[in-house]
Amino acid sequence: MGLQNCTVAVVGATGAVGREALGILEQRGVPAARVRCFASARSAGVTLPYAGSSVRVSEIGEGVWKGVDVAVFCATSGVSKQFGPGAVRAGTWVVDNSSAFRMDPATPLVVPEVNPEALRDREGPALIANPNCSTIIMLMGLNPLRVRFGVEGVVVSTYQAVSGAGAAAMDELSRLAADALAGRAGEPKVFIEPCAFNVFSHNSAVDPANGLNVEESKLIHETHKIWNDRNVRITPTCIRVPVYRAHSESCAVTLRNPASETEVRAAFDGAPGVSIIDDRAGNVFPTPLKAAGGDDVLIGRIRPDPAHTLDDSGRSRHWCLWICGDQLRKGAAQNAIQIAEMVWRN
Ligand SMILES: NC(=O)c1ccc[n+]([C@@H]2O[C@H](COP(=O)([O-])OP(=O)(O)OC[C@H]3O[C@@H](n4cnc5c(N)ncnc54)[C@H](OP(=O)(O)O)[C@@H]3O)[C@@H](O)[C@H]2O)c1
What domains can you pick out in the chain, each with its CATH number? Predict the structure, then answer.
């Protein structure tokens, strides 16, 4: 159902995800008069462009929910914990982009194309969690295979855009790239490593006990929750690359049942929210630049894993994929607004 008659608040409207959310609401035809923008006291009074006019940013507070039907939270986990439950009590549906409630057993964690059943018959208002960006993009690529053949496990390596760390990280890439090209030694502030002309292990904290960083743990635990399957084996390595927006992921997937290449490719026919770019002759495949700004997650390099032989019928359980998706859109704002469209009943 459309959001045109819904009053929508964007919390964290000045950030990378918040601005993207405003752009999507504008594309969906939500009039400026029905959009409320909130951020911290730092941004109170700032105006943001919207649908040929502008919307004013107010400081978030407890008493702002009157008349707000849906709030899309795009700020910190702390802000979601502080204001999310109060918004629900005031009668507002909340879709939360932060990690604050994702693993709460009572909170649905939803990718609309993957587990819409998590929202079925749900009475509201309630808080719905939007998954981690890398998780959404990986599951958009793997879910069509899971539906047809089952998925036993995946080895996934990510190539994550700096904008996954927010607007300040995009500024840091511009600044450090300019410094490097001018022969100056720039100082990183957002990341501990220089992000220009460099790749490095994901900036989230590493668990000293198991060596996984937080992003890798999210890929595992959120996938288990969304697929409602704790047996799927996930081997993640999460890496930052000097790309402004759109994450890429190399996946080596083990299916439960063997499939031929024709069958694997057919699994993506008509799958919502994905497009195939897989031109072996031209060496043309998905890239983050092709995914940036688009709604679809792009899939290519579909091939049998050469470490395993095909069976006599030409089938294998072991397949490789290359996936690119705009993590500010499908990995965050767009997925959240799709959820808002599902829960909002006019
Ligand atoms: N970036 C991604 O690709 C991505 C993907 C999935 C999920 N997420 C999640 O989405 C959320 C936003 O990420 P982002 O990348 O957009 O970050 P960002 O660019 O740093 O923006 C953060 C936003 O939160 C607001 N904010 C910070 N502290 C606040 C406070 N105390 N009260 C009210 N507002 C406050 C900021 O407002 P001010 O301008 O006033 O500081 C800003 O609008 C995070 O929870 C992040 O984990 C991000």
Answer: 8-131+332-343 (3.40.50.720), 135-327 (3.30.360.10)
Atom index in ligand 1 nearest the CA of residue 41 equals 40
Is the previous residue joined to 125 through a cis bond, with omega within 30 degrees of 0?
Answer: yes
Q: Is the CB of 64 under 6 A from ligand 1?
A: no
Q: What is the pTM of this model?
A: 0.98
Distance 18 CA to ligand 1 centre (A): 7
Q: What are phi and psi of 141, to 5 degrees?
A: -75, -35
Average pLDDT value for residue range 218-237: 98
The residues annotated with a catalytic role in the active site are 133, 247
334 lines ligand 1 (CB under 6 A): no
CA of 171 from ligand 1 middle (Å) equals: 15
Question: pLDDT band at 124, cuts 50/70/90?
Answer: confident
List the one residue out of 311, 313, 282, 279 whose CA is nearest residue 298: 279
Two tokens at 336? 């959240």
Predicted local confidence at residue 1, as pLDDT: 64
Ligand 1 contacts CB of residue 23 (under 6 A):
no
For residues 321 and 237, give the distance between their C-alpha atoms in angstroms, rounded to a whole number: 15
Mean per-residue pLDDT for 138-154? 98
pLDDT confidence tier of residue 123, bands split at 50, 70 and 90: confident
Index of the ligand 1 atom closest to the CA of residue 39: 34
Instruction: Work out the percent of the chain whose per-residue pLDDT is above 90.
Output: 97
Report whether pLDDT(215) > 80.
yes
What is the amino acid identity at position 197? F
- C-beta 203 within 6 A of ligand 1: no
CB 217 within 8 A of CB 134: no
